[in-house]
Design brief:
The chain is α+β, with helices and mostly antiparallel strands. The chain is built from three helices and two strands; from the N terminus they run αββαα. It is elongated, with a radius of gyration of 17 Å. It starts with 16 loop residues before the first helix and ends with a helix.
Amino acid sequence: MEYILRVDEKGRIVIPKDVRERLNISNVVKLVVKDNEVFIRPLNKGDLIKKYEGMFKVDLEKAEVDEILKEALGERGKKWLKDILT
């Protein structure tokens, strides 16, 4: 399959719905640039957890990546706010 996609003024593209459904893409993908080519790949939960492992205090046994990120970013935000207020 090949698609011609428009890049908007902010550099965004829309992955066609049939591609998102076929590859089970939700809201996180991996962008790889190699030899002047761009590849967009689905990112599985294990890849995402491995990338952020040890950076945040969260329960990594949770099933939903969105919940893990929300909890982790909330924890990081509290620390950042505490740091700037003290």
